[in-house]
Specification:
This protein has about 450 residues and is α+β, with helices and mostly antiparallel strands. It is built from 14 helices and 14 strands.
Length: about 450
């Protein structure tokens, strides 16, 4: 967790003003002190960012009472997550724009391995943190990104159907009545609609195949007149370049006139994998899209084609419009690695198309820091409100770091945030820890 180099006194003043704004967003004077303390605890160095260890770092001589205050603030107090996040965005987005325009809205999901089954949203499901099915909970997020910086602007727990339809479990963890089962693409669309309604500067929507393979997700983005570059699964079907479904059959004079498109025996769509494997060598080009973290250029082999999606188009009166199919097939690999569908302009160059599709990488740093430095996954409570309050406070605290980075050039030397915690008493021992760990 680092902010860019600058005068410590000035940075402390900026942090104090930022925390004061967050405290006002909490909506009640009694919440001001715990709000500032909680965010300070998230920003301070420390391995564990659950409530009690943070109370020990900030209030080493009054841990018990302050632990109760912080716990009440995060788990029970009825403050508005969107209002809190709105204040942070009002402060951070202008800082981002000073460094360049918003280029992307990045949709993603992040997972948290979690034992037991009583914490809200925990189920056996795919968890990206470990790359497999695991007992975990998963949240959908939306981030704004420039060419060099990014910031989450929405965060919501995915509630599996087994949770959403179990009234007893919902009541025990305080899931609001208005929260119903939604797929991840449906949650993402709600986040995009709210971000649009708030007037946030738009960018190209980027997402992986969990979202891009959902035809309804792509169609809704098109209805909203938003550009996108979305990952899709290899089984998604498209019409090869220059082809499309057959028009509706002629009316014979009886019954309702046919209106749906048709498919002919020798005129059928292909999966994107089949199409990629049939492409001749001249369609493939090596593209470098950016410098890697070790200053090595990132490059791979790509092909881009104008195609029409084919999903259930026999139920439509008109074919889907043409769009880009982008395929990545690294040299020496046995099969293509990734596929994207994009409605970016037909005259866009291959390098620009690749750069858009690959720009999802930028939020990896956000979630690495949010999890490892600010304790995004450290909340130990079970309820809906506490999970989202903790996540919101992590994000708005991270927003200060993003704003600080935006003040300086990317090449400036990083420095730790100028915060120093009080010394923890040597006799302090977190509840549930062994005596040998009590002096952390």
């Amino acid at each position: 967790m680092s902010a860019q180099k600058g005068a410590p006194g000035q940075q402390s003043e900026r942090l104090a003003a930022y925390l004061e704004g967050l405290a006002r967003a909490a909506g009640h004077a009694d919440r001001a002190a715990p709000c500032k303390a909680y965010c300070t605890g998230l920003l301070l160095a420390g391995e564990r960012k659950s409530v009690e260890p943070m109370a020990a770092r900030i209030y080493p001589h009054d841990v018990g009472r302050k632990h109760q205050s912080l716990h009440h603030f995060v788990a029970e107090a009825d403050w508005d997550d969107e209002r809190m996040l709105g204040f942070a965005l009002d402060a951070v987005v202008p800082a981002l724009l000073r460094r360049g325009p918003i280029t992307a809205w990045v949709v993603d999901e992040t997972g948290f391995v979690k034992k037991g089954r009583h914490s809200v949203g925990v189920a056996r499901q795919y968890c990206g943190a470990v790359g497999k099915q695991e007992n975990s909970r998963v949240a959908d997020s939306l981030s704004l990104a420039t060419a060099s910086l990014s910031m989450p602007v929405a965060f919501r727990l995915y509630l599996p159907r087994e949770w959403a339809e179990d009234r007893d479990r919902r009541q025990k963890v305080g899931v609001p009545e208005e929260v119903v089962f939604q797929t991840k693409p449906q949650i993402a669309l709600d986040q995009i609609r709210r971000a649009s309604a708030c007037g946030l500067p738009q960018g190209v929507v980027l997402a992986d195949a969990v979202y891009g393979s959902d035809t309804a997700f792509r169609l809704e983005l098109e209805r909203m007149e938003m550009q996108y570059a979305l990952g899709v699964m290899s089984s998604i079907t498209v019409w090869p370049p220059g082809q499309q479904p057959v028009r509706a059959a002629r009316w014979t004079g009886t019954g309702r006139p046919p209106s749906s498109l048709r498919r002919a025996p020798r005129r059928c769509p292909l999966s994107v994998k089949e199409l990629a494997e049939a492409l001749p060598a001249e369609h493939w080009h090596t593209v470098t899209w950016r410098q890697g973290t070790r200053k090595k250029p990132l490059r791979s082999r790509f092909a881009a084609l104008r195609v029409r999606p084919a999903h259930r188009d026999y139920e439509r009166k008109k074919p889907f419009p043409e769009q880009w199919l982008l395929i990545e097939w690294p040299q020496g690999e046995d099969q293509p690695a990734k596929y994207w569908l994009s409605n970016l302009p037909a005259d866009i160059g291959l390098k620009a198309l690749v750069a858009h599709a690959k720009h999802r990488w930028i939020i990896e740093r956000d979630y690495e820091e949010l999890k490892q430095e600010l304790g995004l996954g450290h909340y130990e409570g079970r309820n809906w409100r506490g999970f989202h309050h903790h996540a919101t406070l992590c994000i708005v605290s991270y927003g200060f770091l993003v704003a600080e980075r935006a003040r300086f050039s990317p090449s400036a030397q990083a420095a730790r945030l100028a915060l120093r915690p009080p010394r923890i008493p040597t006799h302090f021992q977190p509840r549930g820890s062994s005596p040998s760990l009590g002096k952390a």
